[in-house]
Amino acid sequence: MNKKEITIYDIAEKLKLSPSTVSRGLQDHPAINKNTKQKINDLAFELGYRSNKFASNLRKQRTNTIGVIIPKLDSLFMSSVISGIEKVANNAGYNLIISQSFESQEKEQTNASTMYNSRVDGLIISLSNETKDFKHLDMFVDKGIPLIFFDRVTDNPLTTKVVIDNFKAGHTATTHLIEQGCRNILHITGNLTRNVYNDRLSGFKKAIEDNGLALTSDSVISNTLREEDIRDCLENDILKRKPLPDGIFIANDFAAAFTIVKLKEAGLRVPEDVAVIGFNNDLISKVTEPPISTINYPGKEMGESVARILVNQLEQKENTSITSTIILDTELIVRKSSQKR
């Protein structure tokens, strides 16, 4: 048998107080005597009273929840972003509903609909690789619900987003390989629909051009960056090339780590034969042999920044109609995988 839910009326009856006095006492209202507050809270605890946040929020037309949609929670970068968002949101009195699109536009659409129907106060989103149609986000805009993009963003200038300078980061990573003496450099990247990979590719191309090196159709491979695709492009293409690339810039650290394993299995030395640099500064980059040079992606800072913007909009400290793009700094981290010199 389910026990009866305790209400403020039960507490009021036992203490011979008015329900309004009990309600204000539970909310620590300054007009209620300190001793009375103590009696109210002690009895509430004893009886197992639970505040009906749902009813309270319904009256305020707020749920104090923020929706977060991410592609996958499978990297140090993304978990750091979530940590940053949660820190700022919780400090401001908001809870998170987190969902993954698993790189599927259909799943992202379903998640967005669920968030909307759950009446989230605002939505933070990093787009899936498949997403090309953004109509599923129109309902948030039409309803005046703040919508903030991070990392993988739309190119619509009328949106608020937090990103890094992927072009600069791609240029920096490639320039580092060139400075180590690499002249035949390959770039392995992800889905070029997304800004993060497309901008890194542009930075790669510009660094090649700036240093007078050759750029051919074989200089770039675009795939999912999953293990099976990295294995396939290595075994059926890269390792059969003559000459082999002497440097490889890979758009994430997991793919870089797997590439190093396959290169060593083929009898090649890293970095002496092939220098490798990854991206993200995930934990795996520190524990491979050799450790992987990479670009540090400020995930926690990005999460805090995007949450702060959203909370300010929700608290009406910022106008939701004013859009902006926040660009965070990255850092080149040099480890043994790229140190030819």
Summarize the structure.
The protein has 341 residues and is α/β, with parallel strands linked by helices. It has 13 helices and 12 strands. The chain folds into 3 domains: 8-51, 434 Repressor (Amino-terminal Domain) (Orthogonal Bundle); 63-163 and 299-328, Rossmann fold (3-Layer(aba) Sandwich), CATH 3.40.50.2300; 166-297 and 332-338, 3-Layer(aba) Sandwich (Rossmann fold).
3D architecture notes:
With about 350 residues, this protein is an alpha/beta fold. The chain folds into 3 domains: about 10-50, Orthogonal Bundle (434 Repressor (Amino-terminal Domain)), CATH 1.10.260; about 65-165 and about 300-330, Response regulator (Rossmann fold); about 165-295 and about 330-340, 3-Layer(aba) Sandwich (Rossmann fold). The protein is about 45% helix and about 15% strand. The chain contains 13 helices and 12 strands. The protein has helices at about 10-15, 20-25, 35-45, 55-60, 75-90, 105-115, 140, 165-180, 195-210, 225-235, 255-265, 285, 300-315, and strands at about 65-70, 95-100, 120-125, 145-150, 160-165, 185-190, 220, 245-250, 275, 295, 325-330, 330-335. The chain has a 6-stranded parallel β-sheet with strand order 2-1-3-4-5-11, with helices on both faces. Strands 7-6-8-9 form a 4-stranded parallel β-sheet. Helix 9 links the parallel strand 6 (about 185-190) and strand 7. Helix 8 packs parallel to helix 9 (about 195-210). It is elongated. The chain starts with 7 loop residues before the first helix and ends in an 8-residue tail after the last strand.
